[in-house]
Amino acid sequence: PSVPRHTNRLINEKSPYLLQHAHNPVDWYPWGQEAFDRAKRENKLIFLSVGYSTCHWCHVMEEESFKNKEIGEIMNKNFVCIKVDREERPDVDKVYMTFVQATSGGGGWPMSVWLTPDLKPFVGGTYFPPEDGVHRVGFRTVLLRIAEQWKENKDALLENSQKILEALRHVSEICVRGQESPPPSKEVMATCFQQLSNSYDEDYGGFSKSPKFPTPVNLNFLFMYWALHRTTPEGARALQMALHTLKMMAHGGIHDHIGQGFHRYSTDQHWHVPHFEKMLYDQGQLAATYSRAFQISGNEFFADVTQDILLYVSRDLSDQAGGFYSAEDADSYPTAASREKREGAFCVWAAEEIRALLPDPVEGATEGTTLGDVFMHHYGVKETGNVSPMKDPHQELKGKNVLIVQCSPELTAARFGLEPGRLGALLQEGRRRLAGARAQRPRPHLDTKMLAAWNGLMISGFAQAGAALAQHEYVSRAAQAAAFLRRHLFDPASGRLLRSCYRGKDNAVEQSAVPIQGFLEDYVFVIQALFDLYEASLEQGWLEWALQLQHMQDKLFWDPKGFAYFSSEAGDPSLLLRLKGDQDGAEPTANSVTVTNLLRAASYSGHMEWVEKAGQILAAFSERLQKIPITLPEMARATAVFHHTLKQVVICGDPQGEDTKEMLRCVHSIFSPNKVLMLADGDSSGFLYRQLPFLASLERKDGKATAYVCSNFACSLPVTSPQELRGMLCP
């Protein structure tokens, strides 16, 4: 490759997103003191651009504006320019996104914000085209206008930015208003169910017309609702809504039928044409949700999808040291000779490519049928392409097909006069050949940054799948990743988590010169992962670490005045606001997940102050939970866990004994969302016995593995058969 003409300070960063901009003619700075000092010293405005490496419109804005020499000159002359990877610094992203959403009514990435030298925002937006168009002002014009305003009306601008900040502070505050008690769980659950039911798409599943996101938080809420109302029509509907959505997603183009895993979202109502990036947080949450669907329904289809997701992550998003990478991009070069990347190029097919790969005649089918015919029919492939021009504004997918399953195996088999039993093997052979052909294409960019929070979500996915599907290798993979976190994203001296680490030279794991400290979400998702991993592996070391991290989380983030946790810690002067997330979206917000974490922590430690904190969080979000719980389905779910009190399921037995294993398999095979599982192995010097004195009084009956179901540390009569235990766990 030619020697780059420009190189800026981002060349010294570790984030793949920042490195993508290291050769722009823009004099980019990373977020930090050097940039802030220069803005103050030269009395210049700051232009802040926030994005992430798999963001399609971020690439577009870079190509059009940040690689443009003239625009670069305007930026360098008038502004101190800062580039932020939102996945590294969700705290910075959240402060300015709150501003952009409040002032423009929308938000997204790339986010473009102009700040005063003391970091207060006064103008913001998202993507700007480079030049003026009919409907939009161009980026060049905006830059020049803002520079002009700063020259002419500096004082008014500064005064205005101060007012904006006060207003933001007021709007974004979440705290207890007088009433100290959590909202009534029954009403919150009923309202949330009603709101989801009203927005449900009866035909295709999901909870909006388009775009459609997987949003596992909605599905997990519905599973909980079903578990509490199994015998009512509403309960049956909740389960049907969740399972139908999961089926339609797995059949859709949002699911990568050739390369496994799920893309980020669908641009249409049918889950057909996705935005093709694949995010770690989706794979982790979906693996857990599909395993729950399998536990509940016993339908192997859901187990297969779970295994498909975990195969993708093990193969394509795994670092050799045990961590998980963040994402794969949507855009790639169609062929090795291509000059420009196209969205979806790695994943889509022309009909003639498939015909050429699958020419074999199919024995026992209608005369003249080829493997290509069967495959193309089953996956909705059309000669002219199956993507509607409406869903392809840039004509990147013209003549191409996104595979989608639109008919049942029985129908496809009948269409070609085949035995239904033979279809599976034919389709599998087709997929295998397409995967081979796809392996020859240039791969999309891989973001090899490793984040504590997202690794936590993925560990939960592997651990829960391992338990529910009785696949020990998944539990081992989860443990390997947890050991990776402990080694690379935890500082034993301070007891604190770090946010991120990176794949460096020779595939070694590297840390940035000044490591980024963990945020609330890093603690919450890692603690949740450690509880899930303990329940799947029964290794007490994970439990001990989880409780240490919970104490640290309380110390760094708890708001003693208004209750709940702040997203970031105090004491960073460059952060104008300490916020609390209030939306369960593509990822759940940290305060929602922490409610269940705190209740689990209390069950494993007897530390009842944690139950009190859980109630205080629900009280702080009470108004939102009662009016619009659909924005917080995970927290709504947690109100039920809080209200119904977690059951402690204690198995007393020898961890290696067959009878113990049988009892554990029974617990793992049942969807019982308000329980914690523990193994009392008789070692009274072990961690759990030291935490929970009541365990010492529980014994094995007739020397057999024995189960007790306890609530608030008072226990049921002992049972020694899996059947009896099942009866106690399934109401």
Describe the protein's architecture and organization.
The chain is 47% helix and 10% strand. The chain is α+β, with helices and mostly antiparallel strands. Among the domains are: 9-172, Glutaredoxin, CATH 3.40.30; 347-440, no CATH class; 648-729. Strand 4 (111-115) and strand 5 form a beta hairpin. Helix 13 (351-357) crosses helix 14 (371-378), helix 18 (472-488) packs antiparallel against helix 19 (520-537) and helix 21 runs parallel beside helix 24 (633-644). The longest helix has 19 residues, at 233-251. The chain is globular, with a radius of gyration of 27 Å.
Structure summarized in a few sentences:
The protein is of the alpha+beta class and 731 residues long. It is 47% helix and 10% strand.
What key phrases describe this protein's structure?
731 residues; alpha+beta; Glutaredoxin; four-stranded mixed sheet; 27 helices
Write the SSE topology:
Blueprint: H1 16-20, E1 28-30, H2 33-42, E2 45-51, H3 56-66, H4 69-78, E3 79-85, H5 90-104, E4 111-115, E5 121-125, H6 139-152, H7 154-171, H8 185-199, H9 216-228, H10 233-251, E6 265-266, E7 274-275, E8 278-279, H11 280-297, H12 300-316, E9 327-328, E10 331-332, E11 342-343, H13 351-357, H14 371-378, H15 409-415, H16 420-438, E12 446-447, E13 449-451, H17 452-468, H18 472-488, E14 490-491, E15 496-497, E16 500-503, E17 509-510, H19 520-537, H20 540-557, H21 590-605, H22 609-620, H23 622-627, H24 633-644, E18 647-652, H25 658-668, E19 675-680, H26 687-691, E20 706-711, E21 714-715, H27 722-729
Parallel strand pairs: 1-3, 2-3, 18-19
Antiparallel strand pairs: 2-4, 4-5, 6-7, 8-9, 9-12, 10-11, 13-16, 14-15, 16-17, 18-20, 20-21
Helix pairs in contact: 4-6, 8-24, 9-10, 9-11, 9-24, 11-12, 11-17, 13-14, 15-16, 17-18, 17-19, 18-19, 19-20, 19-21, 20-21, 21-22, 21-24, 25-27
